Amino acid sequence: MPDEPYFIREEKLEVSRSQGNAEAAVEPLQLGKRVREIRLGQNLTLEEASKRTGLARSTLSKIENEQISPTFSAVSKLVKGLGIDIPQLFTQPKQSNGASGRRDITRSGEGTPHPTPTYEHELLATQLTNKRMVPFKTVVHARAFDEYPEWVRHDGEEFLYVLKGSLLFYTEFYEPIELFAGDSAYYDCEMGHALVSTSEEDAEVLWVTA
C-alpha cells in the first residue's frame, strides 16, 4: 500500500451564540514551518538534517516551504532523525504576546563544538530553541578552495565578521575577495560560498545566520 500524505487544510467551525451565529477560523497547521523551526532550534543546516533523516536536501526544502506534504514514511524519518516524537512535530508553536524575556549567555570557549573537515565551529546560545538567528564562531582550517567537495549552501541569509587573520571569501556569482580582521559581509546563503584562510594562523570569524 503506498504511503498516504498528510493533508493540511484550514477548517472553519460555526459557533452558535445567543446573539446569533458567528464563524471562527481554526488556524491551519503549518507543518513545513514547524519542521524548519525544529531544525533551526537544533542548529542544523539542511545538509546536516538531510544526513540525519535520510531525506534529500531538496525534499526537506520543499517540505519546509510547504511545496509538498510529507508522506508517512517521510514523517517517520523526520521524527527519528531529529530526535523528537510525532506530537512535537504536529504541535503548533506558541504565539508570543509580547516580550518573552529569553536570554542565553555563552562564556568564552564554552560554546558547543562542531568540527568539520574545513571549519571548526563553536555554536553559541545553544540553550535557546526556536531562535530567529543562529550565531556561531568558526576557525577556518581550509587553505585551498579545492578542499571543499562542493559549494556550501543553505537556507536563509548570513552575516560574516572576521575576528582574526585574513581569508579569501569565495561566492558562487562573484570573484573571490580577501577579507581582513574587522571586515564583514552579508549575503544570501542559497548562493554557494566558502572560506579559505590566507593568514599565517587560521582565520577566525563570527557568523550569524538568519
UniProtKB/TrEMBL annotation:
InterPro entries the UniProt entry points to: Cro/C1-type_HTH, Cupin_2, Lambda_DNA-bd_dom_sf, RmlC-like_jellyroll, RmlC_Cupin_sf, TransReg_Diox_bact_type
Superkingdom in the source lineage: Bacteria
Pfam families per UniProt: Cupin_2, HTH_3
Gene3D superfamilies from the UniProt entry: Jelly Rolls, lambda repressor-like DNA-binding domains
Transmembrane segments: none
UniProtKB keywords: DNA-binding
Signal peptide per UniProt: none
Domain HTH cro/C1-type: 35-89
Region (Disordered): 93-118
SMART domains linked to this entry: HTH_XRE
Name of the protein in question: Helix-turn-helix transcriptional regulator
